[in-house]
Amino acid sequence: MKIADIIRVKGSEVVTINPGASVAELIGLLSRRNIGAVVVSTDGRKPDGIVSERDVVRHLAADGTDVLSKTVADIMSTPVSTCTEADGIDVTAHTMTYSRLRHLPVINEHGELAAIVSLGDVVKYRIDQLTDERNHLLEYLHT
C-alpha cells in the first residue's frame, strides 16, 4: 500500500497560495475550499512552506487581529515535510502521527507538487481497506 493508492481515490488537486498573500486572504481560501491547510508556493509547483488553521490560531492568540494584515510568509511553517507517491502508507502514517503533522504535500520525481494527503485521508483509506478485508473473510467463512 502506497501513497499513490490514496491519491488514486482522493485525487491530486493541490491548493496553493502565494507567500505574499495576506492572512485574511488565506482564511478566505481555507473557508471557501473547506480545507485545513494550504501549500505555500511562489510558482505553484514547488512548496515554499505550508500553512494551516493551527498556524492562524497560534498567531491570532499571539498577535490578536493584527495577524490578518500579516503575510502568509510570516506565519507559514518551514521547512516543509513531504512524502512521495511511492512511500508506504504505514510509514507515512507513523511519520505524520509522531511528527504531529496533519497534512503532507506529495512530491513527484521532479521535486514538484503532485498531491497533498491528510492524516484523515490516510485513516480513511486504512479503514476502508480493513472493512474490505473483513467482508472478504466473512464471505469466505459463509461459503
Overall description:
It is a single chain. The chain is elongated, with a radius of gyration of 18 Å. The protein is built from six helices and five strands. The chain has one domain: CBS-domain. It is of the alpha+beta class. It has helices at residues 3-10, 23-33, 53-63, 72-75, 89-98, 119-141, and strands at residues 16-17, 37-40, 49-52, 103-107, 113-118. 47% of the residues lie in helices and 15% in strands. The protein has a three-stranded mixed sheet with strand order 1-2-3. It has a two-stranded antiparallel ribbon with strand order 4-5. The model has no long low-confidence stretch (mean pLDDT 93).
Notable traits:
143 residues; alpha+beta; single chain; 5 strands; CBS-domain; elongated; three-stranded mixed β-sheet
